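Q: For a teaching session next week I want to show students how multiple molecules come together into a single three-dimensional assembly. I've collected the sequence lines for a complex. Could you give me the predicted structure tokens for the whole thing so I can convert them for display?
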Amino acid sequence: MSATVAVRRSARSARLPSVGLVLAVVILGALPFVLFSSTTDALVNLFILVTLASMWNLLAGFAGLVSVGQQAYFGLGAYSVLVFAEQGVQAYLAIPLAALTAAVFAVPTSWLAFRLRGDYFAIGTWVIAEVYRLVTTRIDSLGGASGKSLTTLSGIDPVVRQALTYWVALAVALLSVLGCYLLLRSRLGLTLMAVRDEETAANAVGINVPRAKRWVYLISAAGCGAAGGVLLVASLSVNPQAVYSVQWSAYMIFIVVIGGIGYIEGPLVGAVVFFVLQQTLADYGTYYLILLGLLGIAAAIWLPRGLWGLVADRTRTTLFPIGYHLDRSGQRRE
Amino acid sequence: MEWTNAVIQGVLLGGLYALFATGLSIMFGVMRIVNLAHGDLAVVASFLALSMVSGTGLPLWFVVCVTAPLFAVLGYLTQRVLLQRSMRAGPMSTLVATFGLSIVIQNVLLEKYSADTRTLDAGSFATGSFTIGEISIPYLGLVTFLLAVVVIVAIQLFLSRTGLGRMMRASSDDQDTAALVGGDSRHIYGIATAIAFGTVALAGMMMAMRSSFDPATGPSRLLFAFEAVVIGGLGSLWGTLLGGMVLGLTQSIGAQIDPALTILGGHLVFLAVLAFRPQGLLPGQTA
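A: Of course. Below is the structure for the complete assembly, covering every listed component.
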């Protein structure tokens, strides 16, 4: 008699955290009704960081594409919302269009960037982001180097506007986290993990490695574009120096590395750590960045799988089951 | 005549970019490390030189002669203490660690020196020039260019003629086999990083004499160095020198057309090389 083994996506222990996750989302969604806008404004920044970090995690943690140039799509997203709004599109509704625009620009960009391998890809994408910044600076209708303000939202009552912005930011962050989750459970996700674990072998079994990577690159660009759009509706103005800054890459990378690269939970944990650090050290100038850099170095050397890696090892818990779980209890369940 | 001068300026500037790029090229060639803090190290060296000149009153040339070897020692230690550990954790760890170093350096400099722009004052040496016919050649540019060529030739000779240099190339080709024949990879990597830090410090200080710097200048220095390496072709120091000159020339000619095109022009040439000749102009095999 052969042992019957059930293969499922998640262990039963994953059910409780999932309920907690849904509860957390409900509570976060209700916050604008109970809290002052100063708190929700800070949370909008957190949601932007979660979005960016999830996108970078997808790129680096699952497709092995370590980019230092995702700020190109972040900036592109912010400017796209500005342009669409000026053409008469409602600014909030322009955010999906901004995501699409970023993905469209990512197609020719990937042709160039994918010529560089490994570490050189990192600086190459950085140069490309600089090109985006310098070209934006030269377009006078976008306000040149001094940037431009978004004026089409000024008709909305500030309290309503802030609440709407908060919900949009939350929705974009949720969509990117859930998007990563669903993507990684799909055929593409399986492909990616095969490529990540053994690229040559994946190639040998007929996986089109460049195509899988390109898809992830486009999706990540779209997510960063949406995050840029959220930044614009939150801050109501944009300038090339700030929005195309490599600092956004620093945030993405260190959040993911501290939180746990290659786990969907990693960017969430890392973003909260970063957020707490930023809020507590807000009065001490740039010291939070120094600390962030040091933590990033420490995590890279001593904790390559980040904080969530520790949690996952100790408790075998996962909020987003993307692997398979063997259940040898004897009964086959579907 | 303006154009001729722009070309000469560009070629001389290219030598400086090549000096910047040498360390990046060597660290990648020997250890497969891309040091994202490369440009920031140049800025640290400039600030250190500035403090030493104003603190002790020693002449600038002496300070430069002290700082560059000091950075070489610092490089050896950084490799042994920090980078060696991160290399064991995987290639992405090294990239993240050096990026972390870059962020830490920039913000520590910002806290200590503020965001003001500075220059290293080299007096008449920095501004003077001599003329041949109608062509004017700046002393600083020429000296920097010659210095870059001497350093690159010296490194090339070191790699091809000395035992340690040969072991470095062997280690770059196959670390395990090099270890079998007695190459201590940690020491070799330390020496490679020492060369990288020493040359980038020298390049940083020479650059700081001709144009201003502030704590956030590092990344642009890094990108120029990187572009010189890629334009020239990975793994060849001669290629790097050529790449530096192409980059310098493009920037200088771009500036002649429109000052706003200086940096963008360089980036575009880099992208063009990437698109049409991704192996670079002079791809090579050594280190």
